[in-house]
Amino acid sequence: MTLYELLHKVSFDEIAPFLSKSYDAGRRCDYLKELIEKYDLAKGLNQHNSIISISASPKHPLQPQELETLQRLLYRSVSEPQFCLKADDTLGEDLRIDFAFYSM
């Protein structure tokens, strides 16, 4: 089953969004990294019932080094995280991470 097929078969118990508020597109990932580390936001993730959605605008897409940084950070809490990359025109230079927790 693909990630997108899974999204249509589950009921979401909770979606926790985290939005960068950096006015410099070059530092937006640093801000999210700091939030995740400082507040240990990834500690509740469980590889069997969570999806990590990373959104960026098409005008300021997620850069490979940003994805690598976020994946490396989140791999500490989840051995095989399920990532979903999305485009969102409303984000401008910001990034958004949504942690979705689901049940089947």
Helix and strand pattern: HEHEHEE
Total number of distinct structural domains: 1
| Average pLDDT rating | 77
Task: Indicate the percent of residues in helices.
Answer: 25-40%
Count, helices: 3
Overall description:
- The chain is of the alpha+beta class and 104 residues long.
- It has one domain (3-103): 60s Ribosomal Protein L30, Chain: A, CATH 3.30.1330.
- Helices cover 27% and strands 30% of the residues.
- The protein contains three helices and four strands; from the N terminus they run αβαβαββ.
- It has a four-stranded mixed beta sheet, with helices on one face.
- α3 links the parallel β2 and β3 (82-87).
- α2 (28-38) runs parallel beside α3.
- The longest helix is centred in the last third of the chain and has 12 residues, at 64-75.
- The radius of gyration is 13 Å and the shape is globular.
- The mean pLDDT is 77.
Q: How do you describe this structure in short?
A:
By secondary structure, the chain is of the alpha+beta class. It contains 3 helices and 4 strands.
Strand-helix topology:
Layout (H helix, E strand, L loop, with lengths): L2 H5 L3 E9 L8 H11 L11 E7 L7 H12 L6 E6 L7 E9 L1
Parallel strand pairs: 2-3
Antiparallel strand pairs: 1-4, 2-4
Keywords:
104 residues; alpha+beta; 60s Ribosomal Protein L30, Chain: A; 4 strands; 27% helix
